[in-house]
Design a protein that fits this description.
Layout lengths: L3 E2 L4 E2 L4 E2 L4 E2 L4 E2 L4 E2 L4 E2 L4 E2 L4 E2 L4 E2 L4 E2 L4 E2 L4 E2 L4 E2 L26 E2 L4 E2 L4 E2 L4 E2 L4 E2 L4 E2 L7 E4 L4 E5 L8 E4 L2 E3 L6 E6 L2 E4 L1
């Protein structure tokens, strides 16, 4: 299946784009990006140098994914979400000379398979978002997010568990939870660990 690139998109010739992927208006894909198959990069989105995305990812309009982010399969990054890459941001050195690329070390955000980042959420590198986790719209993530966690707020904290369908789980007793949509079951092993049964 052919890759679809809109004429107004800016895609570096060194980027590797998987079959069936679509790059929409004004999106920028930098050098060394590896994009899996059937990905959608929305209008005005930015994918930084060397970022990797798995298969079946959606990066919505105006999201910013700065290098060296690592994105798994089936990840959703909502509109205007930001994945940062600088722990100690400054435009200048202590002597007020402009910083260059060699004056700082980029650190990335890692997002595991099936996770979703809500609209206008900010993930402050270096953090890891667990598989099937859900970051609420507008959240600011400053700590790692466990698998299946729903986090919200500033700073983001776990408020619920979610299943693979993205729906908050219902407690059924004995540290077990059920998805109301697909009836799958999960077990809580600790305050920060949930597994699918």
């Amino acid at each position: 299946m052919a890759v679809k690139i809109l004429p107004s998109a800016d895609v570096d010739e060194s980027a590797i784009l998987g079959d069936g992927s679509s790059i929409w208006h004004l999106a920028q894909i930098r050098d060394g990006v590896v994009l899996g198959s059937h990905c959608i990069i929305g209008r005005g989105a930015y994918i930084g140098s060397g970022v990797t995305l798995g298969n079946n990812c959606k990066v919505q309009n105006y999201a910013l994914v700065y290098e060296p982010a690592q994105i798994g399969n089936g990840v959703f990054i909502g509109p205007a979400a930001v994945l940062t890459n600088d722990q100690f941001p400054r435009a200048v050195n202590p002597d007020l000379t402009l910083k260059s690329g060699s004056d700082w070390e980029a650190v990335g955000v890692t997002i595991h398979d099936g996770a979703s980042i809500g609209a206008r959420a900010v993930c402050i590198a270096p953090v890891t978002i667990g598989q099937w986790a859900l970051v609420a719209a507008g959240a600011v993530v400053t700590k790692d997010v466990p698998d299946f966690a729903l986090v919200a707020g500033v700073p983001a904290k776990r408020i619920r568990w979610v299943g693979k369908a993205g729906i908050p789980l219902e407690a059924v007793g004995e540290n077990r939870f059920r998805c109301p949509q697909d009836q799958s079951y999960y077990k809580q092993l600790s305050d920060n660990e949930l597994i699918a049964e």
